[in-house]
Amino acid sequence: MPALCAYRFNAFPKLINNLKKAGKPKMVIIVAIMRKLAKPAYYIVKTGQPYDAERH
Fold first, then answer.
1. How far is CA 35 from the centre of its chain?
2. Which domain of life is it from (predicted)?
3. Which member of 11, 13, 16, 28 lies 3.0 to 4.6 Å from 24 by CB, making a disulfide possible if both were Cys?
4. What pTM did the predictor assign?
């Protein structure tokens, strides 16, 4: 659901525009956004470090 909101409200405009220019379908773009959101979350859980906005 967060990826759908990020797509709808254009939270990652560079990523979305690059994938659209490459001719990717909407679902592929949403999955790319999912991964972009999940990677920092996984790192934070794995290491136990607090969220750092400068790093992520």
1. 5
2. Bacteria
3. 28
4. 0.84
Burial letters for 18-32: b for 16+ Cβ neighbours within 10 Å, e otherwise?
ebeeeeeeeeebbeb
Residue-wise pLDDT for 17-46, tens only, equals 999 999 999 999 999 999 999 998 999 999
Is the alpha carbon torsion for 16, 20, 24, 27 positive or negative?
positive
Domain locations along the chain: 2-47
Q: Tell whether the torsion through CA atoms of 16, 22, 25 and 31 is positive or negative.
A: negative
C-alpha–C-alpha distance, residues 41 and 56, integer Å: 9
